[in-house]
Structure formats: C-alpha cells, structure tokens
Amino acid sequence: MAIKIVVFIVLCTLFSCKSYLIINTINKLHKGMTKEAVLKVLEDKPVKEFTITVNGQTYDVYDFEVKTYSNLVGMSGGTNSFPLYQDNIDDYYLLYFNGKLRYWGTLVEYSETEDYEISVISKELYNKVNLLNNVK
Questions:
Q1: Are 75 and 82 in contact, with CB atoms under 8 Å apart?
Q2: What does the angle CA 18 – CA 23 – CA 28 come to, to the nearest 5 degrees?
Q3: Using CB atoms within 10 A as the burial measure, which of 3, 24, 75, 110 is most buried?
Q4: pLDDT one-digit tens code per residue, 29-40
C-alpha cells in the first residue's frame, strides 16, 4: 500500500512540473489591457514572444499554453486504483497593438472571427507561428 502511495506522489510530481494557465484565467482578460496588466492577471510568462507586421502596422504577440480541459484516459491498476487524466493544452496568442491588448485566442479563433482586421492579421500570425515552429 505504501508503495502505491509513493508511486502516486512521484507520478503527480513528474506530470505537474510544467505549469499551464487554465482557461478560467484567460477569461479574465479584456480588450485594451496593457502588457503589464495582462501579465499580472495571468501570473505567468509567455512561452514565446514575437512581432508581426500587417499593412504597415506592427503587432506584438505573446504565446501562452493554456489547459482548456482534461480527459479521463483510464484508471490505474490494482485494488486502490485512481483516475488517470490527460490535459488538453492549446496555444493562445495575445495580440497587442501600441502596447494594448487587441485580441486573444487560438489560431482557429483568429481565423474564424468576424472582426475583419483580425481575420487579415490571422493569416500573417499563422505563417509566423509555422515559421517559428519549424525553426530547429
């Protein structure tokens, strides 16, 4: 029994080393926030920072990894089994113009928005993310 408890604690520690924002935290953001205010709310640093230029306008982009939900993937074996979960992690891109938060969401949310300016920006954002992800 003691061995199972130790194994459980070790597994929990190993899988919790990387911290992620949770979707409830992202929901506290609002348009017009400064970068400093956003970082204070999120209490985390972005995994990537970069800029994109669209129609002569330069935008700063912060990439955060956000846990959107957890899936039950099974149960551990034995008589004292416990649930095993797999987290779903999405990249959320926070777009700043002149130091103020203009838009945030996943790449899909950028491409599906009804905001014309953001839909135009989404193409360049997608290209930049692909370029950064393919750089070794």
A1: yes
A2: 120
A3: 110
A4: 999 999 999 999
